[in-house]
Amino acid sequence: MKMLMFDTEHFRFETHSKTLENAEDTRSQANIENAAVIFMHVEAVDEERQNKVIKKAVTNLRWYLNKLDKNRIVLHSFAHLSSSKSSPECAVEIISKIKEKLEQRDIEVHTTPFGYFSQFSIHVKGESLAKVFKEI
What we know:
Layout (H helix, E strand, L loop, with lengths): L1 E17 L10 E13 L8 H19 L3 E6 L10 H16 L4 E4 L4 E9 L6 E5 L1
Parallel strand pairs: 2-3, 3-4
Antiparallel strand pairs: 1-2, 1-5, 1-6
Helix pairs in contact: 1-2
Keywords: Aminoacyl-tRNA synthetase, Ligase
GO molecular function: ATP binding; threonine-tRNA ligase activity; zinc ion binding
GO cellular component, one term: cytoplasm
C-alpha cells in the first residue's frame, strides 16, 4: 500500500464518471474542512497480507492525525501511486476495514466513492508535515 497524506484546510470532491461497471450508482459531493486527506493505493501484494496492511495503515494514519492534532480524515482511493494494482474487491475491503478501525477510535472518517473518477479541489498547508508519503 502506498499513501500520500495531506494536511488540508479544505477538500471538496464531486463524482465525475464511473470507472468500474459494478460500482454502486451514485452522484456524490462533499466539502470537508480541516482534515487529513489520504490518497491510498492498494497494490497486488497487499492481497496476500491484508491484516498486516490494515494494521500498519491504521497505525500510520493515527500517528499522522496525532501529529496534526486532527480527528477528521478523508480516505480517497487513488490508483495512480503504483503500477501494481490489487483487485477492486480487495481495495474496497481494505479501505473499508481501515475506515471501520479508525471510527472505532472515535475518528471522523469520510470516503470518496470507490469506482469513480472525481473532480476535486484541495487546499494543502505549507508545513513540512502537510505532505507525507508512506509505503507499507
